[in-house]
Amino acid sequence: MKAAVLILAAGASTRMGVAKQLLPYKGLSLLGHVVKAALDADCGPVFAVLGANSDAIRESLNATDVRFVLNAGWASGMGSSIGAGVAAILEQIPDLAALLVLLGDQPFIDAALIRRFFETSKRESEKIIAAAYDGTLGVPAVFPGKYFGELRKLNPAKGAKPLLERHAADIELIALETNPDIDTPEVYRNLIGGC
To answer: Each residue of 138-148: pLDDT tens digit?
Structure first.
């Protein structure tokens, strides 16, 4: 099964007030942790969609094997970045069978968890494998090839959530203990042990 990982890292981090992808955490940036986990999982090539602050983010990851996709329409929303990423990946890997989508601000997502998502996807090859946390579902999520067309045409402002809701009967959930996203200064301060 040909698989790949798509990391969404194009946003301007308006709630954070700074480029959260570059915020330091345990010797790396938040995005650096996600990239390292995806590469360490060794489940397929790793792509990162960039938009805001793309030059600085690209430079911070130059020493890695991540492949970059620049989304000129990043400001329209996450759905635009997913679409741009899927299109770019399929150009390079036309016979891709499964794609894991995750966010660049999820430093708790480690290589073992990424492998678990892909292993579940191999067993349930026709299903979406999605994370469940805080009473909702979302990414990380593995999408089989039959959903790539829909992923390319997402509403830019709504991301993949409507797709997940439409196909709820075809989803296998992997429960996470907490919301893995680092979205606000308060959450980041808690992460690094500040007050």
So the answer is: 899 999 999 99
